[in-house]
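Subject: design request, 425 residues
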């Protein structure tokens, strides 16, 4: 839907003053697309997933139509596959070097401790420390992959024939993200708004639509309002712990802590939605075009909960149906000439084997279906809610934006694929 503004001269309509986000996706088409691409991914032992994700992105992108004009995804499965291979080699080399360094630290610097009288305990502590260090050492690759994944998707997205793009600045994002992660860790999460705002600003300030640059404005302290439910949830959790410790009321305290845990989950979702709304409202394109979002955390949670319940019912139903069907086939194949206890035992064993095979087969079918169900009932509806509640304000300057050169990325979003980061679809 596109809303038009006042007339510019007699009888001539000007460009629309704002554009409403529109998400038009047919669940049946999306389900069958996700189903057969998921099945091919399993049959090919995961190799087809690069082409599967490409096909899904093309369909999802074409379903997003701000102002009636759909997005276009131009990425290919082959470049994603080759990018994954490149990223895999880099990660393997990095992991090998990391392992050599950790071994040197563990067996050279701590060699005397490990061989001491308390070697078993000290050895366990050191290995835990080295494992934690290895986990931290992977973080730079994860942050690097996050930036590269967004840059790749931007470079392969068009709207109204104009390319999106992002500057090559993944290394700068990586070391900043490491510093902000350290700040978040030592502050016990209290600096979450700072981390969210600064990292998003770094990315947004390097994004382009055609020859027009995006800019992230606003203040990071404004995001604390989005954390209110997390603060309340922590207070409820502390109250429950106090009731158990001081009041010796385990049942009451446990109930309060469960309520606090559920409230904390809601608080995380609330923060994600509200921070998205704030950051969206303070994004500017070419210094003129603005954006607003009316996304609802309650709606996002309801989509997720209903989707999980529906998927659980469907998956259990599939497994039971296949188990029953195979069991009936086994019963039909056993014949009806029943004589003696041994014959009954043979029939029961055959039915049990058939039902077991049916459950196994049903589980494989359910595994394929789960991916399709998650996309159709959770991921796509949540994305659709974000798109439908998005609005582009002061859209007239969009008509003055021109094309820019293409952005070739050798590794595509291979690091994101290898490390399983970078978002849905």
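Subject: RE: design request

Done. Sequence follows.
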């Amino acid at each position: 839907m596109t809303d038009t503004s006042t007339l510019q001269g007699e009888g001539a309509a000007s460009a629309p003053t704002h554009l409403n986000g529109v998400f038009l996706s047919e669940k049946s088409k999306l389900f069958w697309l996700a189903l057969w691409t998921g099945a091919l991914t399993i049959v090919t032992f995961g190799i087809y997933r690069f082409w599967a994700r490409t096909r899904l992105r093309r369909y999802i992108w074409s379903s997003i139509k701000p102002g009636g004009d759909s997005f276009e995804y131009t990425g290919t499965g082959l470049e994603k596959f080759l990018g994954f291979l490149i990223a895999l080699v880099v990660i393997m080399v990095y992991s090998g070097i990391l392992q050599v360094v950790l071994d040197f630290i563990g067996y050279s610097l701590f060699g005397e401790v490990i061989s001491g009288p308390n070697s078993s305990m000290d050895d366990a502590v050191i290995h835990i420390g080295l494992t934690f260090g290895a986990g931290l050492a992977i973080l730079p690759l994860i942050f690097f992959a996050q930036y590269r994944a967004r840059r790749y998707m931007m470079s392969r997205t068009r709207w109204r024939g104009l390319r999106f793009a992002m500057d090559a600045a993944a290394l700068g994002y990586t070391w900043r993200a490491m510093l902000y992660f350290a700040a978040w860790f030592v502050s016990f999460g209290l600096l979450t708004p700072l981390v969210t705002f600064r990292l998003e600003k770094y990315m947004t300030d390097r994004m382009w639509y055609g020859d027009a640059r995006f800019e992230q404005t606003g203040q990071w302290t404004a995001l604390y309002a989005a954390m209110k439910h997390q603060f309340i949830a922590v207070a409820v959790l502390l109250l429950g712990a106090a009731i158990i410790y001081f009041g010796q009321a385990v049942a009451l305290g446990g109930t309060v802590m469960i309520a606090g845990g559920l409230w904390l989950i809601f608080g995380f979702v609330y923060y994600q939605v509200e921070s998205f709304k704030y950051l969206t409202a303070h994004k500017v394109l070419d210094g003129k075009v603005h954006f607003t979002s009316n996304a609802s955390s309650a709606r996002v949670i309801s989509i997720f909960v209903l989707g999980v319940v529906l998927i659980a019912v469907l998956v259990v139903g599939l497994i039971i149906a296949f188990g029953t069907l195979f069991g009936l086939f086994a019963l039909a194949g056993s014949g009806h000439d029943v004589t003696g206890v041994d014959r009954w035992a043979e029939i029961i064993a055959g039915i049990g084997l058939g039902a077991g095979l049916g459950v196994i087969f049903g589980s494989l079918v359910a595994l394929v279906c789960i991916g399709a169900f998650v996309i159709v009932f959770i991921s796509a509806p949540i994305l659709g809610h974000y798109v439908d509640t998005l609005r582009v304000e002061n859209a007239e300057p969009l008509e003055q934006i021109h094309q820019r050169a293409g952005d070739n990325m050798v590794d595509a979003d291979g690091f994101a694929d290898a490390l399983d980061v970078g978002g849905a679809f």
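Residues 200 and 216 are 8 Å apart (CA to CA).
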